[in-house]
Design goal:
Layout (H helix, E strand, L loop, with lengths): L2 H14 L5 H12 L4 H8 L3 H22 L1 H24 L1
Helix pairs in contact: 1-2, 1-4, 2-4, 3-4
């Protein structure tokens, strides 16, 4: 997985992760946040590597579908950028 893709997926997981099943949450947390390999996750959960990959793929699809439908991450990032610009303007006004 490319770094850029990993960053986006982490943001999507932070935004929508609670909407995944508990099993998908556990696997995605291990995969994204704990940086475990599919093999390590499979061993920890006593399941096949294929089961872990299926869960990761389904969770990724669901996260991207949720963002496409709801657009919360896009809105959050837009508000963060607007907040940053407002802070810069405020800082400049304080200097005057």
């Amino acid at each position: 997985m490319k770094v850029e893709e990993n960053i986006i997926l982490n943001k999507l997981f932070d935004t929508y992760g609670l909407l995944l099943s508990s099993g998908q949450q556990d696997i995605m947390s291990s995969y994204l946040q704990n940086d475990l390999t599919v093999s390590e996750i499979a061993e920890n959960l006593s399941v096949s590597r294929q089961a872990v990959m299926d869960s990761v793929n389904k969770a990724e699809k669901k996260l991207f579908d949720l963002e496409k439908k709801l657009g919360l991450l896009k809105k959050i990032e837009s508000l963060e950028e607007e907040n940053k610009l407002l802070k810069q303007k405020l800082s400049k006004n304080k200097e005057l």
